[in-house]
Amino acid sequence: MSVTPAPRDAAQLRSRAEALAETFPPLLAGAQHLAQSVLLGSHGRRRPGQGDEFWQYRPVMTGDESRSIDWRRSGRSDAHFVRQKEWQAAQSVMLWVDLSRSMAFASNRNVPEKRHRACELALALAILLNHGGERVGLSDHDLPPRTGQLQLLRIAQALGAYGTEEYGAPNAREMPARSRAVFVSDYLGDIAALRDALTAAADRGVSGIVLQVLDPQEEAFPFDGRTIFESMGGAVRHETLKAGDLRSRYLDRLAARKAELADLARRTGWQYHVHHTDTAATQALLWCYSALERDH
Predict the structure, then answer these.
(1) Which intervals hold domain DUF58 (predicted)?
(2) For the chain, what is the HEC assignment?
(3) What pTM, to 2 d.p., does this model score?
């Protein structure tokens, strides 16, 4: 199996991610959601609620308290009006990207490593969220959610530090209550850690995205005859003379893992999606971009 060397330079990763993000508007929601008049961060979200910015006047309704009436505006007409403020809530989004050795796999030089694609997507999403006024943090790297260009640089630098463990595992300990999160991995290791993390997140009111990144070879299993299978870290090794005989069993187990991930996401209020490294990164970014908006 050939592995394409992953770029370690944070600036290069940031540049690639920004180029990917440029194809989308600087708001969390895509164009299909703009009709809902949803604005982010300091711009507020266009609905009544707690906030400092004036939104609109509306006629008094049954149940309104007299202290809510704007007497100056009401004095200019024959009706009474209530002054509404715009609800402002900059959201916090925590990212977790699997940087383990399993994610270093690339089946050929025409596709990127899984972890490079995962990092690129996560950083591009962070750029979009930052442009929309959202606070973005990186789980497991002591990077609590913040806004600003400096935060993006910190995230890029952290994503350039690849791990040495065989498989990665997320946790929900650093996630603010009622925030959102994005987990990116191949999820080919022990699923128990993900189950614990999603359960803990749900208990804290955290919802989000489970994005599975797979190499096309991991989907097709195009092996036959004598083949040596070895994990990226070398901890697992298996040699067979009839690799083709393993295809159906492997594909069944992969399908079962996907079904388990989808069910786990559904039961904890998250959303699940599969991305293949031989397809355009913009497809996965658009899905994540829209999924976070649906998660509001």
Answers:
(1) 56-256
(2) CCCCCCCCCHHHHHHHHHHHHCCCCCCCCCHHHHHHCCCCHHHCEEEECCCCCEEEEEECCCCCCHHHECHHHHCCCCCCEEEEEEECCCCEEEEEECCCHHHHCCCCCCCCCHHHHHHHHHHHHHHHHHHCCCEEEECCCCEEEECCHHHHHHHHHHHCCCCCCCCCCCCCCCCCCCCEEEEEECCCCCCHHHHHHHHHHHHCCCEEEEEEEECHHHHHCCCCCCEEEECCCCCCEEEECCHHHHHHHHHHHHHHHHHHHHHHHHHCCCEEEEEECCCCHHHHHHHHHHHHHHCC
(3) 0.71
